Amino acid sequence: MAVIAGVLTMGALALSLALLTSAPAHRRTVAATPGAATAASSVPRRATRSSGRRPLSPPTALRPGPGPAVSGGTAWQPYGRLVDGVAAIYELHGATGTPVSATPFAIAWMDTRLLRATLYSGSAIPGGGPYRHSAPISPGAARVLVAAFNAGFLMDNSNGGYYTDGRVVAPLRAGAASVVIYRNGGVTVANWGRDARMTAAVASVRQNLDLLVDHGRPVPGLDPNDTSVWGYTLGNQVYVWRSGLGVTADGALVYVAGARLNITELADLLVRAGAVRAMELDINTDAVSFATYRPPSPTALASPSNGTDLVAGMVGTPARYFEPWWARDFFTMSAR
Question: Is the residue at 35 inside a domain?
């Protein structure tokens, strides 16, 4: 595999300073509850929405895995705007490792039958705009917005390509880990050329490195001490902010993030969350971000005031996606 880099540039440092001086984050407090994570079946869901679209079955307890034990987790809980009265996103917060050296993490599970995905291009990533979807999120899009989260590395470091608005912004690489979004709003995580390929139905493709999880297992050869193949890290540290995105066997998306994860822990958590294929997204302090939005009424606009970060300590606030200067590309999940 080619060695790639996630080097923090001076521009990224400037962005980080801008985020740090923005309004205080609307962050959730993680309440640790002893015992293993439980299923979300206690949260009522309609069998079928008024549109006739049947939701996916809610997430179940985390699977056992070869990595560090998971402890202090809470049950899956619904977050974000309901879609026709149905929870479309569930979150789980926990920690891996021992009580002395616990590593907090959070997982968001997203129902792709209730939600449609969109790739938003940033002012710097991928460059070469303008694009149909760019920050800030418009009022029309805010009316159905449920969540938004970070994409991948700078294009020079991603070892992959970028396709949107009917044009190839950066050449797509066969075999690359890819978030593939279709014109009907469907989305998957794929090995490009094997699991997905270019057709008239494809709306966007965002590639980043190779798959981290394949066939429901971490890919062979992962090195827990790696600081280069899966992204150069700040200060050459192993344990840094990391994020990853996977797809489950029934088509749900699972997003994992934590402030002190190495690459093997990220892969292990994605597998435990049910991912059959998964990829690393962005890493390092200023780049990892995920927010849900819960307006006061079903037709009200998502806004920074009703947004909540997935993980306490994420740099920036839920306002980041509503700022026209936001340099990085990102994904949104909206009510269908």
Answer: no
